[in-house]
Amino acid sequence: MTVPAKVLNDLFFEKVATQEGKDKIAEFGGTYIRDRLREVSFARKILPPQPVQRSECQRSVNHDTLVKIVDIGPNSKAVALTFRGQPTARFIRAPRYEIPFFTISSEKFEKTEQELLAYEMPVTKIIEENSVKDIQAIEDRQFLIFVEAAVQGYQASTSNFNSTNVLTTPSLQVSAVKSEGALADSTGTSFTVYPVLKTDFIKLKQLLHRRHLRAERMLITEPDYDNISAWTVQDVGMTIAGETSTEGWKSDTVVGLKIIRTIKTEILREGNVYCFTAPEFFGRFYVLNQTKFYIDKIANLITWQSWEDIAIGLGNISAVVKLELYAGSVAPGYTDTGYASLLPVDENDPLLAPVNNKVDSGLKYPNVSQF
Q1: Is residue 82 part of a domain?
Q2: Helix segments in the chain, DSSP class H
Q3: Which residues, other chains included, contact 109 with Cβ-Cβ below 8 Å and sequence gap of 6+?
Q4: What is the pLDDT of residues 58-89, one digit of tens each?
Q5: What pTM was estimated for this model as a whole?
Q6: Up-side HSE of residue 204: CA atoms within 13 Å toward CB?
Q7: Closest C-alpha to 72, from 276, 317, 322
Q8: Does 227 map to a domain?
Q9: Most buried residue among 35, 288, 312, 324 by CB atoms closer than 10 A?
Q10: Based on the structure, what is the number of domains in the chain?
Q11: Residue 15 class from Cβ within 10 Å (0-12 exposed, 13-18 middle, 19+ buried)?
Q12: How many CA atoms, within 13 angstroms, populate the side-chain half-sphere of residue 19?
């Protein structure tokens, strides 16, 4: 039986008035938030999070927060010898790096007792829409900033990484490649996003394969993914072309890559496609303890807030590569005009919390005056 939203709100109000009730609500909210984050965050699909305790972390000597120190496997090789031969002795050194923890928090939501009674929307729904979505958006945004920094760090461009320069110097494509459409752009520096082609994915995979790494999964926006359904008979054959024309691309892989799609085009901007190795070759994602949820009532004011303490560290920056479906350069220090439109928006940008309805502007149909 479905419980009416008003009943849920009344029960919520009664429970929050006692400490026992607040603890139970906080426990439920914490569990629900943690599960939803695992479900919707694309960062967690690429780097599955690992829970850690305080005892597993270390204090940093550079700042006042905790870190997790991670080892990187030592390099080694073998040689062919005669029966009397001896291998060269080499002192083994295994590098390590530290991953700092940081907090992502929702806003502190407030509602008076009187206003809460007037709502027919369940408060748990408000928690889901305003807390969970906000936290996971910032989590994915931070992850993508680290990923882009890894690509650019390995790329180490000394000039504008645009189609004009790539055509004259193909060796510029180290950790990033331009698409076929971008290379055919007459300007060579614009940020028009071109449809992805099958050969683009193959070029992207080859960047990792030439580094003795296996391309495993890719991250792509839904609008860019939609263009796969437009591939012709020459690309996918008669059978698949017929299926995609009526049902779209149904497979969860393309050219051997697992597809991770996202509608968060304000974070992963259209025209950017990333390809990753398996997590064990790439980095680590840690969650300190568990997601926290706090709720309190002071007089007639009810407040609630959720937050998490996480650490994301990319120890092998060569394990991610990028496909750019536009001609212009977004390389730091060597950008073309308009590059900002291809980067994640600021944390305070309204696009991170888009509102499609226009009810507050009076745009709803039918209006009373239309009858």
Answers
A1: no
A2: 5-16, 19-40, 42-46, 113-117, 123-127, 133-155, 163-168, 180-183, 198-209, 222-226, 233-247
A3: 126, 127, 130, 131, 303, 304, 305
A4: 988 888 889 999 888 877 778 888 888 888 88
A5: 0.84
A6: 32
A7: 317
A8: yes
A9: 324
A10: 1
A11: middle
A12: 0
Output the pLDDT for position 299.
87
Question: In this structure, what token pair is assigned to residue 212?
Answer: 């003795």
* Mean pLDDT calculated for residue range 40-53: 90
211-260 residue pLDDT tens: 999 999 999 999 999 888 877 666 666 556 656 666 667 778 888 899 99
Separation CA 216–CA 253 (nearest Å): 10
Residue 316 domain flag: yes
CB-based contact 208:214 (threshold 8 Å)? yes
**How confident is the model over 90-127, as pLDDT tens digits?**
777 778 889 999 999 888 888 888 887 777 666 656 66
Does residue 362 lie in a domain region?
no
| Domain at 124, CATH number | 3.90.1690
Torsion of CA 205, 210, 215, 218, to 10 degrees: -40
CA angle 227, 229, 230 (to 5 degrees): 70
> d(Cα 135, Cα 292) in Å, to the nearest integer?
12
Contact present, 342 and 326 (Cβ < 8 Å): yes
Q: Decide if 285 contacts 244 (C-beta within 8 A).
A: no
* Cα–Cα separations (whole angstroms), residue 116 to 11, 147, 352: 11, 42, 26
Q: Which amino acid is located at 255 in the chain?
A: V
Q: Which domain holds residue 255?
A: 5-73+94-339
DSSP class per residue in 217-260: EEEEEHHHHHGGGG--HHHHHHHHHHHHHHH----SEETTEEEE
